[in-house]
Write a structure and sequence with these properties.
mainly alpha; two-stranded antiparallel ribbon; globular; 7% strand; 2 strands
């Protein structure tokens, strides 16, 4: 259903051998966030609302 990214996400992805730019270019967030523990899985909802919510904390 989504993913969480924070200041540790890129470090975790590098340790896992993932190239963030490659996954972004392929629009493949699922396979990027799954190995680093960033996925939010809710199960089937029967909807596809395509909402985006962000919180920026400087």
């Amino acid at each position: 259903a989504g993913a969480i990214i924070d200041e540790t996400s890129l470090t975790k992805s590098r340790r896992a051998g993932l190239d963030a730019a490659d996954y972004l270019a392929r629009n493949d967030a699922y396979h990027f966030f799954d190995p680093i523990g960033g996925l939010i899985k809710t199960g089937p909802t029967g909807t596809n609302v395509m909402d985006l919510g962000m919180i920026f904390v400087p």
